[in-house]
Amino acid sequence: MSAETIQSRRAWLLSDRPASRLQARLGRAYVSWRRFSANRLALVGMLIIIALVVVAAFADVLAPYSATVGDLKNARLLAPSAEHWFGTDDLGRDIYSRIVYGARWTLYVVILVAIIAAPIGLLVGTVAGYAGGWTDTILMRITDIFLAFPKLVLALAFVAALGPGIENAVLAIAITSWPPYARIARAETLTVRNSDYIKAVQLMGASPFRIVLRHIMPLCISSLIIRVTLDMAGIILTAAGLGFLGLGAQPPLPEWGAMIASGRRFILDQWWVAAAPGAAILIVSLGFNLLGDGLRDALDPRSGDQ
Amino acid sequence: MTASIIVEGLEVVFDRFRALKGVSLEVREGESYGLVGESGSGKSTLLRAITGLAPVASGTVTVNGKTLGKTRDKAFYRDVQMVFQDPYGSLHPRQTVDRLLQEPLAVHGIADGERRIERALDEVGLGKGFRFRYAHQLSGGQRQRVAIARALILEPSLLLLDEPTSALDASVQAEVLNLLEEVRRRRKLTFLMVSHDLAIITHMCERLMVMQNGEAVETLSASQLIGHRVSEDYTRNLLRASEGFVRV
Amino acid sequence: MSDMLLEVDDLRVTFPTRTGLVQAVRGVSFSLGRERLGIVGESGSGKSQTGRAIMGLTPPQAEVSAKKLAFDGIDLLSVSPRQRRSLRGNRIAMILQDPKYSLDPVMTIGRQIVETLRTHEKVSKAEARERALAMLQAVQIRDPARVFDLYPHEVSGGMGQRAMIAMMLVTGPELMIADEPTSALDVTVQLDVLKILDKLVAERGMGLIFISHDLRLVSSFCDRVVVMYAGKVVEQIKASELRDAQHPYTRGLLNCMPRIGFERHPLPVLDRKPEWAA
User: Fold this and answer.
1) Cα C60–C63–C69 angle (5° rounding)?
2) What is the DSSP letter of C259?
3) For A214, which residue in chain B has the nearest alpha carbon?
4) C205 lies in which domain range?
5) In this complex, do A24 and B133 lie within 8 Å of one another by their Cβ atoms?
6) What is the ipTM score, two decimals?
7) Helices in A194-245 by DSSP H: which ranges?
8) In terms of CA atoms, which chain B residue is nearest residue C196?
9) Closest to B242 (Cβ–Cβ): which among C221, C260, C267?
10) Is residue A300's pLDDT more than 70?
11) In this model, does residue A219 exceed pLDDT 80?
12) Shortest CA gap A30–chain B (Å)
């Protein structure tokens, strides 16, 4: 592609008078991308997350050994070497392979929690904010009840009731993480519900359902995406915490938190067993935090329109 | 001549504050009627009460022969539309002009959207080039044109105008006022227009009501006002004030 | 030239933005004696930035330059920030559009006036109070003692604007810059405020710069009018000769407003020519 065509494409994207819906949308996305990519750290965060996704997708190719079956006879607790990059654990399993497969579980947890918790929070918050009155009071008191407990404790209670296992851990985390999203969505809704542009839609005869869904939710989504991204690190840590306590993923699943838990026994002599998954959690959490910060700059609805 | 809208004894109360204290008026079909007053006179509240945006404590509103109940149905909004004062606040910040104009059509299940949108944009003098812009890519005057197009797209018979030009520069105000007169003539619309500016109301309206503190002060025709044939002191004060500063 | 209160020659205000430098004011020149000068223009004409630059209230990221910007012979661009501050509020005062934003919400009106006076002059508390009350009386507040102890949110817009004027005038400034001082007020209140302003300016022999979008109002109030368009002065004219204005922009602005008793349908609109901004 010559410099000229790049130039003309950019002009097309930044055009003040887009000629189609697509061009308007792409132009808007491009402006956000330019703001996002101006932030170097955010790019680093995005690279980390992309790497996580790639690793999870190609785990079968990237992992040299099995994640669940080890060589008990010859390869217990080996130090990192060319053969086993991050060493092996007490069951003779290659830690590098386990971490690679563990990326899948991390992603699984994070995505499922986001898919369950964010929409619940968004729905509760926008409905409470828009409806006001009794609906608001009831929904927000329920939210307060959830917020009154520390997240991990509440998740523990849920897992204890539902039974251990990674699916239940996901469910427990999702149930405990929607209330802050509801709060954010409600706050955003309150700031826009009395604006003239929402009144204008009311004056078209649109139903409250339509107003919430099509006019209020899109305005709440960007702050929600930012918050969810920033929460990802916390979700990973909660999942790891549950795994560590033996209430999340069950052995032999290569979940990072459970791996730290099993490495704890050898932490003084064979530090790599716990350190490798710990580092993985650290890096991915950092990645999500950096990404979230970058998204805040790029999507901030207040700075976004000028 | 039949009446487009009849308001009788309308009262609006916000938390015990009586914003509107029993106001009555009648606007004939095809007429342009003005409401003039200073802040707190209840002129905007009257418009909002008609559309259902402000709570009606008592009194009745009859539009095209139908007396309205507590809620407004979809058919009402096809008959009555409103243009807001602040062009910067009345357009959704995340929607293109196209999407803004599509919305009323979608709500009412109107099929020939494409044609109507193009016609509405042409009618307000914007043309196709503006169709896919976002609100922040438009000037104040252009935004108000979009708001007018949005109000017109359902082809209402009555347009409520809440200080439609007070946030605009004088030269842009003239353009928007001309546009409003033109669409009124072309579509045979009835206007109910609110302004604090007597000159704008006499320019746009045949009859007007002067309001103060939630009450009607007096009802006049534009020609009475121009000839200074007014009976209330308050109206006389307003008239004097609108002539600008006079050094004594 | 000692009777010249303010001299502005080739004033420029430049703002850095994402897309490059933007000149809000592009070479504005005028001078002011002890008279009432109106600066008129539409939004984006640079009229407010001109006032702010004279006052020294330009945002820090913007750059102000001028061949000459002198108040009573003092070069405003070369004086120390400290000197500038003491000029501001003492010899030069400014009234802004909305008193809500310019009065301190957590201090009573009386105390604000007293504080203003005491930062600029060495006076006793009792004397300051005396003068503040007299000033409130001068802006035709009927019960000065009561208003003295009120907070800004407890008074109406017109009263707030009068209090603002009282606060600005209490130090006896020689130059007053009023930026849309009455635009947020109801028309009847607007005239009361203007009357007060007019009387005080006349009595005290102040210079006044009245910045507004309303050409007709300004021409009825001021002696001379500077018309601005796109950061430049397109015309300077005596208010009494406004009807013979030469520039099409000035004429357009005058004509495009509806007037009671002058039926024109449609209203004449401005046909903006690119060369006006050149």
Assistant:
1) 110
2) B
3) B103
4) 1-91+175-278
5) yes
6) 0.89
7) 196-202, 208-210, 217-244
8) B247
9) C260
10) no
11) yes
12) 14
